[in-house]
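ligand=zinc ion
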Amino acid sequence: MKIFEVKPDESVYCPFCEHVVFLNDGESEPEVCPHTLLIATDLGIAFCSDTLDAESLEDEAAESSWADVVSEIDKPEAVLIEMYEEAPEFFGAFYLFEE
Ligand SMILES: [Zn+2]
């Protein structure tokens, strides 16, 4: 899995089709494209494709963290985009894509 980090004020683009999955304007909801596997934040799952088991991912995240759970998903070809808020929040958002 390739992992990229974007700044908390950046938008998130699909690395395969460049669709704007998350327009960072403070009000837009995430909009998935066909390559989106998972959108999760420290608050929980915002989107999960049928190829992943949302329930077991949430169970795992409850015991560790979304950062650990998402990076350990067995998808070698996938691309993970991480976004962390500045201190003191360190709120994380995780966008997983696969072609
Ligand atoms: Zn896409």
